[in-house]
Structure formats: C-alpha cells, structure tokens
Amino acid sequence: MSSGPGLQSLVDQTISVITNDGRHIVGILKGFDQATNIILDESHERVYSTKEGVQQLVLGLYIIRGDNISIVGELDEELDANLDLSKLRAHPLKPVIH
C-alpha cells in the first residue's frame, strides 16, 4: 500500500469519516491507496436528526472514493461506546462547499 498522510498508522483501527456530501461513516480501516480511496469493514453510517436519536445504518464492507472524503479521524472506541446515541440530537451535517 502507498503511504498516505498518516493513514498507515490507522489501519485495522476504527475511524470516523465525514464525506463531502455530509455523511458520517464509522468503520475499521482496512486499506487505502495513493488517491486516498479507503476501504472500511464493519462500517455504519450515522444519520443525525433534531427530532430523534442518531440512526445507524449498517453498510458492512464499504469503499469511499478519496475525492469524496472531507475528514478522516481516529475514533476513541471507549468514549464512543459510552455515548447513548439514542438520546443524542443534532442537525444533519451539511455538504461541504468548495
């Protein structure tokens, strides 16, 4: 695999990805390439709402094109496990405007 900006250290770890269209996807980073296309396993999308808790849509093995990625971050699994997503209210993320 090519070395991306810090992604190699995140392989086989749970990461959080925000896409340019405002989606929030969480999964285990399995691989990436020089264009920052990434492969996530055991992934799910978190859909935010101001009226009900966060919905988690199961995606499974998922590929995200590098040109659609806005932010990639390491996820603190312990902190994330302690969140009660059913009680969390938030506005849906808006698309990134370039």
From TrEMBL:
Keyword RNA-binding: yes
GO molecular function per UniProt: mRNA binding
InterPro entries named in the record: Lsm8, LSM_dom_sf, PTHR15588, Sm, Sm_dom_euk/arc
GO cellular component, one term: precatalytic spliceosome
Pfam families: LSM
Domain Sm: 2-78
Chief subcellular location: nucleus
Keyword Nucleus: yes
PROSITE patterns in the record: SM
Record keywords, A-Z: mRNA processing, mRNA splicing, Nucleus, Ribonucleoprotein, RNA-binding, Spliceosome
Domain of life: Eukaryota
Gene3D superfamilies, sorted: 2.30.30.100
TM helices/strands, residue ranges: none
GO terms, biological process: mRNA splicing, via spliceosome
Subcellular location(s) of the protein: Nucleus
Role according to the record: Plays role in pre-mRNA splicing as component of the U4/U6-U5 tri-snRNP complex that is involved in spliceosome assembly, and as component of the precatalytic spliceosome (spliceosome B complex). The heptameric LSM2-8 complex binds specifically to the 3'-terminal U-tract of U6 snRNA.
Family of the protein in this entry: Belongs to the snRNP Sm proteins family.
PANTHER family: LSM1, U6 SNRNA-ASSOCIATED SM-LIKE PROTEIN LSM8
Quaternary structure and interacting proteins, as annotated: LSm subunits form a heteromer with a doughnut shape.
The protein, known as: U6 snRNA-associated Sm-like protein LSm8
Organism (species): Elaeis guineensis var. tenera (Oil palm)
Gene it is expressed from: LOC105047393
